[in-house]
Specification:
By secondary structure, the protein is α+β, with helices and mostly antiparallel strands. The chain is 49% helix and 22% strand. The chain binds adenosine-5'-diphosphate.
Length: 681
């Protein structure tokens, strides 16, 4: 199972490179893409708004065209109906007077007509009638002024044998104004022969006002125009300054054609002509805003990504440069991460380690039980000591090496523990140095002991030499005296006195050496048993590690302090422990346990004594060895001095106690000695 962090680290190294090598071109390309996108969106939106506006305008135009066509249709229909009504006027062959009456009635019903005339074949007027709604149209210049238009219309009418219209023309009125009119000429036929004409004069203004459905043209300006745009008649008014839509329709009449023009003064589409455009514009604004926000967000994300890549690259560089091994485990004990230093330390590759749990491939087989217990304790949530603990790991090639492990819980961003993070230091080199210093320290001690012994021996021999030489001289002299003849008893007794004196002197020498040893009595101090053990444990554990011995201490609670020569007692404990460990240094001994116990003495009468015992599981003491065990210089070891136990016994006895030993169960030996509790003396 590849560790996620490892993956991230690797991929980020690549990312970071990509960022570095192509940062500028990539940034420029991204800016170009963003600019293009923005441009496209803006263009699209402008087009959309424009199209919406255009659509709106075309809608207005179409409606206008349709209304114009309808208006033309209205006028045409009414004109046709008028022609039919006018033809009906002639049916019963009226007299001129009767005709005038009927024409008068007709004019009252049709405001669009201003005058009606009945003319004969030569266009002479037989009868006429004017509209009652205004003064006579032709009052100012006379009817003849319009003769050419009448002629034109009637010729056309005769040619078509049907109604025909003249082109429109202007008639000035008496009040100074004028009006545009149009002649309709209707040829009359009687028994198949032409029987004169019926003339009707239409006012263009009234055509617009009366013939078009008012509902249809509301909101428009409607007019008849000439080809050049001159207005002949207008209905409605145009609003100034606003956009005007225009539609033109031709009103085709027999003999003439009128142009009907319609202008809409409806306001041109404003900024928001209708809901559609407003909607599109709102959406456009929203889209641009979202784009801007997205851009901002993207910039922020890119920055965060770059920071993260930098941080990861930094972390990876840091991890790779570490000489400390790092390992992460999840809560089930599976390895989830290892750094290069850890792999290098063990000789395993990361793939061989990731996902492994119990037993880990780097656990020495003989220590698997102990490590499993330790892991179980850890997984149960027990915090390891902050200063770390020592352990032994096995490399891939099978070699063991000591490590210092510092563990800490692995807490994720949510504050939940997801496993354990451990740092490892290979302390083989440190151990080697310590071992070297211990060995040299031991050698020094041995040398010092030898020096002391040698010194004492030479002192003794020097001091004893003289009295012994004197004794020997006196003895020889006495013997000579006895052999050579008569001597006085006085001489002999003198010699013997001298011998006695020298012997006494020798005794004094020996006593002084004894006193030298006893001088140490003065340095006794009160000390807690724990302190004594603590002082020697570091020294013991050095050798214990070397000989793969496990050291256990048991101290009875609430023990009193003891009164002792601390240095000497420590020396005793050290000697006994060292002997015990050495006795287990044999290939056939697998269980190597050294136990140091301190408890109250159980021997009756010694309740105020504290008993120290050192037990080993070694080869034990044979009866032959036992015989000479405390003899100075007796040893079974190649490099032994044979002074250790005799010194220990001396020290034990100096403190008023005894050094004893007994076999240990199931094997080995237990040495014990006791010291007085401090309150006792
Ligand atoms: P050294 O340790 O220098 O040999 P000692 O006086 O301390 O001198 O020990 C004398 C001998 O007693 C040792 O050589 C060893 O044979 C024997 N001896 C001492 N302690 C033990 C022990 N715990 N188990 C077996 N033999 C021991």
């Amino acid at each position: 199972m590849p560790h996620p962090l490892a993956g991230i680290g690797a991929s980020h190294a690549v990312n970071a490179e990509a960022f570095d090598s192509s940062r500028i071109p990539f940034g420029r390309r991204r800016r170009f893409l963003w600019a293009s996108l923005l441009l496209l969106v803006v263009a699209l939106l402008v087009m959309l708004v424009w199209l919406a506006g255009r659509y709106e305008a075309s809608q207005v135009q179409t409606r206008l065209e349709r209304d114009a066509a309808d208006a033309v249709g209205d006028i045409r229909a009414r004109l046709i109906r008028n022609v039919q009504s006018l033809q009906a006027l002639q049916f019963n062959d009226p007299t001129p007077n009767a005709w005038r009456n009927e024409a008068g009635t007709f004019l009252r019903q049709h405001r669009e007509l201003v005058r009606m005339e009945w003319r004969d074949n030569e266009l002479r007027t037989l009868s006429h009638a004017d509209t009652p709604f205004r003064s006579s149209v032709f009052a100012r210049y006379g009817r003849d002024s319009a003769h050419s238009e009448v002629l034109q219309a009637c010729r056309t009418a005769r040619r078509f044998s049907g109604p025909a219209y003249s082109s429109s023309y202007f008639v000035p009125l008496v009040d100074g104004l004028g009006m545009e009119v149009l002649e309709l000429c209707l040829p009359l036929v009687k028994a198949g022969q032409p029987a004169g004409y019926l003339l009707a004069t239409y006012a263009l203004q009234e055509l617009l006002d009366d013939l078009i459905d008012g509902q249809r043209v509301r909101g428009y300006e409607i007019s008849f125009t000439e080809g050049d745009g001159t207005r002949l008649a207008v209905r409605g008014t145009s609003r100034k300054g606003s956009r005007v839509f225009t539609a033109q329709q031709l009103l085709d009449l027999p003999g003439t054609t009128l142009v009907l023009r319609m202008d809409s003064w409806r306001a041109a589409p404003d900024l928001f002509p209708n809901v559609l455009t407003a909607l599109v514009t709102a959406m456009a604004i929203a889209l641009v805003s979202i784009l801007a926000l997205l851009g901002k967000d993207m910039r922020r994300r890119l920055k965060a990504e770059r920071d993260l890549a930098d941080a990861l690259a930094f972390r990876k560089a840091m991890e790779d440069s570490l000489v400390t091994g790092l390992r992460a485990r999840d809560l089930q004990g599976h390895i989830t991460y290892v750094n290069p230093a850890f792999c290098q330390m063990l000789g395993f590759s990361a793939e061989e380690l990731l996902g492994q749990s119990d037993p880990a491939p780097y656990w020495p087989p003989e220590l698997v039980d102990e490590y499993q217990k330790r892991q179980a304790i850890r997984l149960a949530g027990d915090l390891p000591p902050r200063e770390g603990f020592e352990s032994v790991f096995m490399r891939k090639d099978g070699s063991r090496f000591p490590v210092l492990i510092i563990e800490a819980p692995l807490i994720n961003a949510q504050g939940v523990q997801t496993g354990w993070m451990s740092a490892f230091l290979d302390i083989s080199e440190q151990r080697r140095v310590e071992e070297l210093s211990r060995a040299s320290h031991e050698r020094l001690q041995a040398t010092a002991r030898l020096a002391t012994v040698g010194e004492m021996a030479s002192l003794l021999s020097h001091e004893l030499n003289q009295p012994l030489a004197a004794i020997s001289g006196y003895a020889t002299g006495s013997l000579n005296m006895l052999r050579d003849g008569p001597h006085t008893t006085a001489d002999l007794s003198l010699a013997l006195r001298r011998i006695s004196e020298q012997a006494e002197r020798a005794g004094k020498v020996i006593k002084s050496v004894h006193d030298f040893v006893r001088r140490r009595d003065q340095v006794r101090e009160v000390v807690a048993p724990q302190v004594l053990l603590d002082a020697i444990l570091p020294l013991i554990s050095l050798q214990a590690r070397k000989l793969s011995v496990q050291v256990k201490t048991h101290i009875e609670p609430d023990l009193p302090k003891v009164l002792c020569d601390r240095t000497m007692v420590e020396q005793v404990l050290l000697n006994l422990a060292r002997n015990g460990m050495q006795s287990m240094d044999r290939p056939d001994i697998k269980r190597r346990l050294l136990q140091l116990r301190v408890a109250r003495a159980k021997t009756p009468g010694r309740e105020h004594w504290v008993e120290f015992s050192v037990s080993d599981g070694g080869h034990g003491i044979t009866p032959e060895v036992e015989e000479q065990l405390f003899t100075p210089f007796f040893t079974t070891k190649a490099e032994g001095m044979g002074l250790g136990l005799s010194l220990c016994r001396t020290v034990a006895e100096q403190h008023g106690g005894l050094l004893a030993f007994k076999p240990n169960e199931p094997q080995g030996t237990t040495f014990t000695f006791s010291l007085p509790a401090s309150g006792m003396t």
